[in-house]
Amino acid sequence: MAYAIDPELAPWAELLPGMPFRDVAEARALESRILDAMPEGETAVPVEVRQSTAAGPQGAGRVPVRVYTPRGADGPRAALVYLHGGGFCLGSVELSHGGCAVFAAETGAVVVSVEYRLAPEHPFPAGLEDAYAAFVWTVEHAAGLGVDAARVGVGGDSAGGGLAAALSLVARDRGGPAPCFQYLGNPALDDRLGTPSMRAFTDTPGLRRGDVEAIWDHYLGGPGRRGGEGVSPCAAPARAEDLAGLPPAYVSVCEFDPLRDEGLDYAHRLVRAGVPTELHLFPGTFHASAAVQDAEVSRRMIGEAIGAMRRGLRAGAGR
Length: 319
What we know:
By secondary structure, this protein is α/β, with parallel strands linked by helices.
């Protein structure tokens, strides 16, 4: 199928490597080569980076986190607990390092990037419980982090966006600390794979339907569970019947992405549930096309995300 890819992105559509998600070992080897080739970026504001750990879920070890704190401002800051993408089985704080540094520098918020456990070795709910533990740790250690505990949000891209949506559901249902905001970038939300974009986009650059089938199989603990009965809404937030009481949201989707319609549908349901929600579809884009940072649409996508974070976290208040 031919796609009307943005002209600045079109030359990259075949060059950006898709991940062989069915073979996790091969995918991780490719990811390692990509990481080795990535240049170290610079930010407009100096950012202090340090490693720490959060108390993990019961029966598990501590959760590694990487904390990004912009320098040069006084007073408690907002914070964003960030969950990387990678189809629940790839990705790391190292791979998302550059983006998290930019988020911290441009929003003035502390960013806590979470090294959650990955499938298939650690299927649902391991990664989600790690993410929730890191969020609770951030709130409980707000004073030591220089953070206002009332302005801690959650966010992520792709699978990380799905985890951020799930974390917001868990926080609401457990009655613990609640995020003030959720950033859902191209989120993976629905294991049932029944949307029009999921049925149509079998050969799109960046991500294809077959890739999404594989990541859900890994995350849910093996083939046969995806799309079936008994899958928790905390694994696939699109299954949640009640979205009322969730934090304000910013949802972004790419036009030629199998995940597009589940993101659109979830945003519409948030609106109908009375959740303040901002939704942005970027035409001509595909999954992970924002990696082409020189393209004008990519600059807009990143800029819109940063602006939404500033608003949602009330970043600047107390700075």
